[in-house]
Amino acid sequence: MKQNQLKDIANKYCVEDLRDSLTPGTALSNVISRLELAPEYIPETTKDYLRQSKLNALLQYACNQISFEEFKHIAKSEQEKRKFESEKQRKEQAKQAEINAERRRKQQKIHNLLKEYDIHPSDVKLSDGQKLRDILEKVNQRIRLGQDELAWLMVSRGGLYSGYYTQKLREKYHRIEAEYYLGKYQKSKNPWDIINSSSHFRKCNCANEANSYLAQINSSAFKTKKIISAFNTTYGGVKRDLSAYDEAIALGNKAHALTPNDFRPCTLLGAVNIEMGHYDEGQSWYQKAIERGASEKSVDDDLRSIFKRSEKSKCKDLALFLLKRDPERYDWVKKYLN
Fold first, then answer.
1. pLDDT tens for each residue of 179-227
2. What is the spatial distance between Cα 268 and Cα 247, in angstroms, rounded to a whole number?
3. N or C of the chain: less Cβ packing under 10 Å?
């Protein structure tokens, strides 16, 4: 039977809304074709099909229980109900599809957010997910983190280097802090604000920016030796990061002369001398730092940072020097001899 003929028959029996009625060879198209061509005998299998398909008007008409006029009235009512249910289902499916799409968009957004900070989604505990996302979104919006949030990042999943506080996240955190304290300084001219800003710029590998701001400041105008010393110490640290060692030494010496009992200038001078290859001088300054209140651990952590930023050949020389001085204390440097 031709397609247009089948369409006319489907319209006649009020089933054109059902796709199978317009497809040759399907159960429904065969039923309405039989009704049209040979309505006298309808097999039981056909009746069962109409019953299961809830085509009650068509079943009654096929069984000669109602006239065609009655069938038409009932069938149109059934068809309207089917169309209503079909449209309702379509809307529900569209709504669910949008919900699923929105869920996928959110998941992708979260995935991208984690990826930006080198955090793999599979490494995030289910109970940590929402809190971690809230923190990362704050950082992305350049909103300062509270100390409790920072502490949580550091201790989550095992501590500083195995938690969520990745290198990229640390750098972004310190960048935000650096800009915050810089803004405070530009309003208040409080020297401690520019000192704090400089410290954070260094921790996000932006020593050049810190240098540009510190170079514009006349530290001699500050009111106390403590502030001038702190300024020279942080400025010396910036020069150290930029490998301007002579300037770093000069600033460290100025700071030490101003506050001879402060361990911080001593730590700076120890680090700079070690990086310059003046190992005995560097260790002498580190010892002075310990005598003035620095912990042995903080000094050793400083040495670890020097190893991380030094060339392989320098690491080997420094490792040999430290092992010769104290094999037990510096046992951890052996890995740099391989």
1. 999 999 999 999 999 999 999 999 999 999 999 999 999 988 898 999 9
2. 12
3. C
CA-derived radius of gyration, the chain = 40
| Torsion, Cα of 130, 134, 139, 141 (10° steps) | 140
Residues 6+ apart with CB under 8 A from 296: 290, 329
Q: What is the pLDDT of residue 161?
A: 54
- How many CB atoms are located within 10 Å of the residue 29 CB? 21
- Asked if 245 contacts 272 with a C-beta cutoff of 8 angstroms, the reply is yes
Q: Is the dihedral of CA 25, 29, 31, 37 positive or negative?
A: negative
Are 258 and 220 a contacting pair, CB within 8 Å? Answer: no
Least confident of 38-42, 135-139, 290-294: 38-42
According to the model, what pLDDT value does residue 36 have? 85
8 Å CB contact between 150 and 160: no
As a whole number of angstroms, the distance between CA 132 and CA 140 comes to 12
Cβ contacts of 264 within 8 Å, gap of 6 or more: 229, 230, 233, 255, 289
